[in-house]
Design a protein that fits this description.
92 residues; alpha+beta; Thiol Ester Dehydrase, Chain A; four-stranded antiparallel β-sheet
Length: 92
Amino acid sequence: MIAPGTQTTALMMGLIAAYFSQFGPTLGLECSPRFRRVVPMEARTRIRWEITELEDRPGLGTIFTCVGTLLLLDSGMVAIKGACQGVLLERP
């Protein structure tokens, strides 16, 4: 059995949302996964995100851009690559 793409991408997006939400209100702008390999249901995986850009937008907040991967630990192969962009909203 394989893990559905919606499940694996939800885990990846949830990790990024949990990280940024600790700094305040966050809004996701876009997320684009690229499926490279099948993810077996029992697979041990590692999700890694890297912040590649932070852009201050006065009156809105800080736009962040990240790239990430979901790695299959047993084979060392990347199953999913992704890019994500969101905004840390300014507090009134």
